[in-house]
Structures are given as structure tokens and as C-alpha cells.
Hints:
The chain is mainly alpha-helical. Helices cover 67% and strands 1% of the residues.
Amino acid sequence: MLTLILVDNVVTEEKPGYRGVALRYVKSVGKKYAPSWWKKRKHWSLFLLSPNNRFRQLLQKITSHRSFDIIILVFILASCVSVAVENPNIARGTTMRFVLDVLDYTFSAIFMLEMTLKVLANGLVFGKGAYLRNAWNALDAALVLISGINITVALASSGKSRLLGLLKVLRLLRTLRPLRVLKRARRLKLAVRAVIASLKPLLNVFLLSCVFFIFYGLLGVQLFRGKFYNCKDRYMKDYRNVTTKAECLALNYTWTRRQFNFDNLPQALMSLFIMYSQDGWTNIMYDGIDAVAVDVQPVVNYNRGMILYFLSFMVMSFFLLDMFISTMVQTYHEEQKKQRQTGEDPLEPDETPVDDSFHLLYSSWRRTVYQISVHRFTDLFMTVVIILSVVVMTFEYYNMPGWLEELIEYSFYVFTAILVGEILMKLVAFGLKRFFASRWNILDLVVVLVSLTSILFSELKVTYEIPINPSILRVLRALRLAHVLKTKKLRVLVMTVVKTLLQVGNLIWLFAFFFYIYAILGVELLGHIGFLLKACFHFA
Length: 540
């Protein structure tokens, strides 16, 4: 149902198959038997306001203005904060409960007013651009109606216990209110589309993961069935002065099974899932290495060859996780490309072509400087210099002799001088505007400034008077190695990695958003339980 809600399709759009035939039939019947007043006022808002009505045109200007969306977004974020403060342990009659109830009524009234204005401006169902023809608007309307019903039931349930059950259900549905943010956040909206579009390819990856888990589960049952047991004394601590189960029971001790084991396929799958989550997987691996035989006390590092089973599973699990991530990132990239082709919500400006003919207007000496700065030999020379400077840094070690320390320091001065010369040459060749237009030039400038700052602090001997540890500045010298990435092939690879990280970042924001919703839902469902038990991990 969520998939149907979040896809931006027009309800009356004709589609092939039985649905398309049914829609065409309904349209034909409607045209044939529709009354005359309906045909005349089909594009009127609620059959009352015509498209040329001044009041309706004023509402259209207000609701389509960017400031209106910003104001509504601020109220949505404020309502998210109020929902996050909610707690089932807040007693009625307290000031906190009164404030939260007033905020709930206020936000519900504001969102109801927003929906009313948009319905009057664009129409409800009929007409072009009607409110409910947009699936995101339909989601907003459902949340507003839920809030209205919640308030009505809350006011009617004072002193009536039979309505309290319905009130709790409506309060749970109120946790979906942050979903309204998805419509206003373009990147989250695009991420939702990408997640929905990736469900089909992710199903194939999921089936492959199931086959992989079942294979390793069956193999684990054959290898470790009945071997994940050990003897515990009366204080439930490991007791290793026995060799078999019979000896353990003869001492009136307990022969216990490990929490995660491979006695059967369900237990094996659970253990593999814990390993896949990388939460304490090493403990399961050590138990497998220590396992000897059925009804035999484990021996430390008894069978080290079993490490191959666990390490191979972890390596393959990394590949499976990468397949999940790459599938979602690829789908996100495709959805972003479709959005740019249709001109809907462009996220990034188009790249402007670079003009390489500017140097033709230079004087002869400046044109010579430009040709030297862009020559391939210059890039090769600077790459060698950068690699040498990093190699020299690797010679540093603790308690090194004084002559080596001076050699490294003076070589650092020489390499810094060469980098300063390159920066000055590029400033002359490209000018300030074109120089700072390249991010690689800015990186070079930052590295040079860090190097000069390090030299300045070292020569003035003020390293103990500044709040920054000067050794950090020395470590930042390794940023020079980024100069090697400026080659064409590596530059394409770096830009690909950067774009991938940006796309993954948008998906992470979406997942964090749903984590927030589930956290609020956990507080509503399980908050009172954690408050009573006073557990370490709870939702109170």
C-alpha cells in the first residue's frame, strides 16, 4: 500500500491490461450519463469556484509561492519535534501534557488550513492539477484526516474508557506525520522513488543472499552440530577442568549450550545473521575453532582450520552488502537522470563548457608561462616531487638520529618551495578567477598554506603556545599525495567515487528519517515497558 501511495501517478491515467479497460469503461459511462451541470463545472473547484474566480486565483498564487512551502515546512519540522518529545509516561494534568496537546491541536489546525486552501485553489478530485490527483497530496490529506479524527476522539473520550483503545491506535498513526517532509525535500523524494524502483532488482539480490545463507547454514550444521556446548560451574562461569559432558554432570555442574549455535538450520541461520551484522561475530568464530566433538568440552584453538569457514562467510557477506548498496545507488542514479531529462526538480546545474582560448590574448612571456604550467612534463615532474616528499616522510621514526631529522626537515623546505613556485606559476598563467575555479588548485593551495604554517611555527618555536598540536600540521603534509590523483584516469575515478558518496548520502538521510519514525513508534508502543523495567536499552 505504501508503494501505491508514494508513486506520483495520476489516478485517471490509462494503463494497459484490465485496469486500462476498466478506466476507459468508467470514463465512457460517466460521459454518457453525467448531468449537464457536472459537464459545465467539471474544472471548477468543488463545483463552486470557476477557474476565472478572483478568490481562487488569489489562493493559487498564495499556495504556489515558495514562501508558503517554507512556512509549512517549518511547521512540519516543529511538529516532528513535538512528536519526538511525546512519551506515554507523561501523566495527564501536567504542564508538559497540556503543552503537547495544545501544540498537537495547533499543528493539526494549520495543516487542515493548508489542505483547505489547496483544495479551494486546485480542486479536490476533478480538473487539471486537482489536489488528490497527486499521490503526495493524498498522503498529506490522509495524515491530516487522521489528526482530525484523533483530536475528535480525544475530546470525546474524556471519562469514557471504551474509546481509549481507538485513541491509542490513532496516536500510533500520528507518528507518520513526519512523512510530510518527504514531499518538500527534493532529495528525500528522489531517494524514495529510487528505493521503490530498486525493489525488483533488490529481490534478485535477496534471493541470492538466501541461497548463500542456506548453503553456509547447512554446512555449519554438518560441521558444528552438537559441539557448541561447554561446562559451567555453580556460579555459571566456564569450567575447563573436565573433558566430557559426563564428567561435568558428575560434578553437579551444568552442561550449557551457546546462545548462538549450529544445532539445526534455524539456529545456524540466526548465528550467520549475527555474523553478517558484524556484532560479536568473532565470539562465534572462536567457539567454532574451540569445538572438539559432541559432548566433549571445548579446547582453545583445537581446530584452527575452521577459521576458513567463518572468514569465507564474512568475505562473501561483504560482497553481498556491496551488491545491495550498488543496486540502490545505480537505481538512484537512473532516477536522477530521468528527472533531469524531464526537467523536473533539477538538483545540480549543468556543467558549463570551459573556454581554453583565453591564453591567446596573453603577452608572449605570460603565454610561455601558461604553456609551461599545462605541459605534460610539468605534471610529471610535480608528481615525482610529491611522491618523493611522501617517501621522505616515511623515513621518520622514534629516536631517529639528528642528521636524519635535519635532512628530512630541509628536504621538506625544498619540496615546499617547489610547490609554492607551482602555485605562483599557475596564478600567473590562469589568473585568480580561473585558478580558484578548479578544486584541485584550491587543494594545492591548502596544502601549501599548511606547509608554510608548519614551517612558521617550527622556526618561531611557538609550538607550545598555540592551541593546535603542530604534529597535526606535519601529518597534513601527506595531503600532497592527492596531487597524484590529478591525472586524467584517476580524476575520473575520483569524481565517480565522489558522486557515489553523494548519492549514498541521500539514501542514508532517507534511512535515518525512517529510523526516526520507528524510534517514535517504539516510544509509543514500548515506552512504558522500558520505564517499568529500567533496562539499559529501552524506548522510555
